[in-house]
Amino acid sequence: MGKQIKIEELTKAISTVIKKLYKDRNGVILSENNEYFTEIGKNLGLERYISDHNVTCSKLFAICDFLEISLSDFFKLVEEEDEKLKFNKETKGQLVKKAYKKTITI
């Protein structure tokens, strides 16, 4: 399997939004995560996603479900966090090209 592509700006913005939503829960998140684990049978491992770790769509959906936010609202916050993530015809493809260049090994 090839190396996973990581768009650093996106990963950082997602991590920042998760941190902010996490912080907004006033420290009760650990006990809530334990309750979620008991109900769903899956530990979300939120700690790894607040440290610029790539997240899958399915895991992000579960995190949003846990944090009680829709994916669309979550991604609005992500775009607010980093304006470069909003689509712009003038900058189309730049972040993607940058990410792919980093995966090329010579």
Describe the structure.
The model has no long low-confidence stretch (mean pLDDT 82). The chain has helices spanning 8-24, 29-40, 46-49, 57-67, 71-81, 94-103. It is mostly helical and 106 residues long.
The number of helical segments is 6
Instruction: Using the alpha-carbon principal axes, give the shape.
Output: elongated
Total beta strands: 0
Order of helices and strands: HHHHHH
Percentage of β-strand residues: under 5%
Give the tally of structural domains.
1
Overall SS class: mainly alpha
Secondary structure: helix percent: 55-70%
Q: Please mark out the parts with pLDDT under 50 across 5 or more consecutive residues, or reply none.
A: none
Through-space gap between termini: 18 Å
Largest sheet: none
Mean pLDDT: 82
Question: How large, in whole angstroms, is the Cα Rg?
Answer: 15 Å
In a nutshell, what does this entry contain?
This is HTH cro/C1-type domain-containing protein. With 106 residues, this protein is an all-alpha fold.
Note the topology:
Elements: H1 8-24, H2 29-40, H3 46-49, H4 57-67, H5 71-81, H6 94-103
Helix pairs in contact: 1-5
Looking at this protein, list some descriptive labels:
elongated, mainly alpha, 106 residues, single chain, HTH cro/C1-type domain-containing protein
